[in-house]
Amino acid sequence: MAINPVLAQDSTSGDLFPCPQGGEAFVLKRDAIDFEVTLPRGGKLKGRGCFYLSSIRIVFVALERSSRADFKSFEIPLTALRQQKFEQPIFGANYLSGIAFPLDGDPNGLLAGGAKFSLTFNHGGCGTFLPLFFQLLAERQQPVSSPGVTQAAQDGRLDQVAFVDPSDPSTLYLSQPTATPNSQQQTQFQAFEQESGSAPPRQEGQQNCSIS
Predict the structure, then answer these.
(1) How many CB atoms lie within 10 A of CB 83?
(2) Would you state the pLDDT for residue 112?
(3) For residues 118 and 36, is the Cβ–Cβ distance under 8 A?
């Protein structure tokens, strides 16, 4: 789990997306998402935007209504996700909640102890997203599971394994996105107790990113 993982510009669409890591395969993108996370040391981060589901993580990218100028994205590794629940309230939108724990890249200990989060789906159903998400979770957390979805994403065969729900507006990746060279960007996040009036500086290329 990490605040503000490295983003890059999609070479086709021009949109910001999670900079691909080695061996990572993107599965789908979902728009119109409200995100909220409660940090272990206090404070909440909120935003509206989209999330990307890959073979190894979920990454939310804030596009508007960010609660802080230095909050741009949030990464949830599937191996570090616990107590995941999909809720369908009678009144209100469906949402996915859980607790995410840090793997590395948390030098200030902002995320130690786990952070409770929610992803709220403001439009459409989740019949395509949910089966893929839970299968990927099993592939990452249970080594005996065969990497069916991961392999299908790498081979460009997601349309053969995904259930296509007409009410689910998720975008499946039938080919893998690539990052525009030298487009990586990462925003430094300041701890709540260390906030100042000045905007935090941007830092480029702070973690591995595969460019092709």
Answers:
(1) 10
(2) 78
(3) yes
| Residue 158, H or E segment | helix 158-161
Look-up: residue for tokens 């590794």? Answer: 77
Residue 135's Cα: distance from chain center in Å? 16
Q: At what angle do helices 129-141 and 148-155 cross, to 10 degrees?
A: 110
Give the highest mean pLDDT range of 26-30, 102-106, 139-143, 181-185.
Answer: 26-30
**Two structure tokens written together for 89:** 């309230």
Which of 118, 121, 130 is CA-nearest to residue 35? 118
Amino acid making up residue 40 = P
- In angstroms, the CA 65 to CA 165 distance is 29
What are the Cα distances from residue 30, in Å, to 60, 144, 182? 9, 29, 25
Per the listing, tokens 């409660």 go with: 38
In the predicted model, what is the mean pLDDT of the chain? 88
Q: 38: exposed, middle or buried (C-beta count within 10 Å: 0-12, 13-18, 19+)?
A: middle
Q: Which residues contact 94 (CB under 8 A, 6 or more apart)?
A: 86, 87, 88, 120, 121, 125, 126
**170 or 147, which is more confident?**
170
CA neighbor of 37 nearest in space, from 70, 71, 7, 88:
71
pLDDT tens for each residue of 86-137: 999 988 999 999 999 987 655 556 777 899 999 999 999 999 999 999 999 9
User: For the whole model, what pTM was predicted?
Assistant: 0.88
Is residue 77 helix, strand or coil? Answer: strand
